[in-house]
Amino acid sequence: MAGAERLAGKSILVVEDEYFVADDLKRALSAQGATVIGPIGQIDRALTVGSEERFDAAVLDVNLEGATTYALADRLAERGIPCLFVTGYDGWAMPEAYRKAPRVAKPFAMQTVIDTIAAIIAGTLAA
Hints:
- The chain is α/β, with parallel strands linked by helices and about 130 residues long.
- It has helices spanning about 5, 20-30, 45-50, 70-80, 110-120; strands at about 10-15, 35-40, 55-60, 65, 65-70, 85, 105.
- The strands form two sheets. A five-stranded parallel sheet has the order 2-1-3-6-7, with helices on both faces. A two-stranded antiparallel ribbon has the order 4-5.
- The mean pLDDT is about 90.
């Protein structure tokens, strides 16, 4: 199934504080038919949006200006919303609770993010 068909009509929260990465993610996901919420670059705002708005999945940078997004990932898990970490951290550098979470290493190929988030939404990759 093509990327556009897999993401059409889906809402995806993007939490990323690097402007160019955030902009690239927004453009790529939008081009695949997704509605993008954000990008959001501050943890407080991301926690608010993650608690109040409805969306199908989230793409989370692990480190936002020195704060981690693990609390947001936990909040999303409580709500049944899957997430994908995009990070420069290796899996072993992440807390044990998050080491097996879907993760794409920076720098990444945008198609890898699109394929991974589509798999998470489709339920073919455990989040």
